[in-house]
Amino acid sequence: MNDRISESEWTLMELLWQEEMTQPQLAEKLGKRWNKNTVHTFLTRLCAKGFLQVDKERSPHVYRAIVSRETCEKQERQSFLERVYQGNVKNMVASFVKDRQLSAGEAEELRKLLDEI
Question: Are residues 17 and 56 both part of a single domain?
Fold first, then answer.
């Protein structure tokens, strides 16, 4: 499972991490934003990438996430770190600090975390 999840695929995964669903249920939750063919396309891709499992014994087919949200978050963090900061955690954290993306409380929590490590 080295494939990344696209933004649209992530939207489906958010729903499927909560509970297993059928394609019509997903389409209903997504509303008019996506048509049923789009939902089907992304479900097929996620199954092919190994993120979802489909129960074809049930009708309509039921989809469920087989990769946890935590695993996907970790993969996204690692991908971001490699892509943007060439794997250098120090540079990433420094850029957030320099851009003042951390509140004083977050900076203190980060200090504590680093001390623990």
Answer: yes
Q: What sign for the dihedral angle of Cα 63, 65, 66, 72?
A: positive
Domain count, the chain: 2
Helix, strand or coil, per DSSP, at residue 42: helix
Residues 27 and 59 both lie in one domain: yes
What's the pLDDT at 84?
A: 94
CA 89, 92, 98, 101 dihedral sign is: negative
Helix runs in the chain, H state only: 7-18, 23-30, 36-49, 69-85, 89-98, 104-116
pLDDT tens digits along 16-25: 999 999 999 9
Residue 18 CB neighbour total at 10 angstroms: 11
In a domain, 107, yes or no: yes
What's the pLDDT tens digit per position in 12-62? 999 999 999 999 999 999 988 888 899 999 999 999 999 999 999 999 999
Q: Could you give the CA distance from residue 84 to residue 28 in angstroms, rounded to a whole number?
A: 36
